[in-house]
Each structure stands twice: as structure tokens, then as C-alpha cells.
Amino acid sequence: MDRVLVTGGAGFIGSHLCEALLKQRYEVVCFDNFFRGKEENIRHLIGRKDFVLIKGDIRDKKEVQKVVEDCDVVHHLAAINGTKYFYEEPILITDVNVQGTLNVLQAAMD
């Protein structure tokens, strides 16, 4: 069974992807910092043998590398979206969406 990482897995789209992957009999690792994602989106998945929830941040390069190394596939959906945040927290948005994505890409390449 392939192990699939879904960054941003507690978000609206990510949680639906986790469900779809589980239905296809993949083992799913949901990685989310819950800035925008919600536990209620994945609460019904917690406790399944084929589902692992890891609270973490894609800006933490070492943490991302550790999570990715045990996975066969990576679906990267973690990001901060929403116009409000772009105006209120531009540095945070850039750090998460650019540096965080780079961390995921580098870990996947390794």
C-alpha cells in the first residue's frame, strides 16, 4: 500500500482528498498546522489505522523532510489563501507559500 502525504490535509480541499485517497486504499498522512485547516474536517478520519495526522508547519524544513521520507507520494496543498491575509500578513504569506513550498519540493526531491 502506498503511503501518501497531503500537506494542508485538514483544509476544505485537503480533507476531501484525504477521504478520496483512503477510499482508494492508500495510507494517508495528513500534515497541517491548522492555521486555516480545521480538525472538524478530518475528525471522522482520526483513529483509522490507515490515517495519520501530524500537526506541523511546512516552514520547518527538518520536520517536512522527516515526514516526506516515509511517503511514496506527496500532494502539496498547504498554503495561506484569502485576500484578507495578503493585506494583513504579507510576510507570513510569502514565508508559508514560497519558502514552505520550497521546503516540500526539496524534501520530495531528496
Question: What does this entry look like structurally?
Answer:
The protein is α/β, with parallel strands linked by helices and 110 residues long. 46% of the residues lie in helices and 18% in strands. A four-stranded parallel beta sheet has the order 3-2-1-4, sandwiched between helices.
Termini distance? Answer: 21 Å
Report the C-alpha radius of gyration, rounded: 13 Å
Overall outline: globular
Average pLDDT taken over every residue: 96
Q: Largest sheet, order of strands side by side? A: 3-2-1-4
Number of helices: 5
Give the H and E element order: EHEHEHEHH
Keywords:
110 residues, alpha/beta, 4-stranded parallel sheet, 5 helices, 46% helix, 18% strand, globular
Produce the secondary structure layout:
Elements: E1 3-7, H1 12-23, E2 27-32, H2 39-42, E3 51-55, H3 61-69, E4 73-76, H4 83-88, H5 90-109
Parallel strand pairs: 1-2, 1-4, 2-3
Helix pairs in contact: 3-5
What's the short story on this structure?
By secondary structure, the chain is α/β, with parallel strands linked by helices.
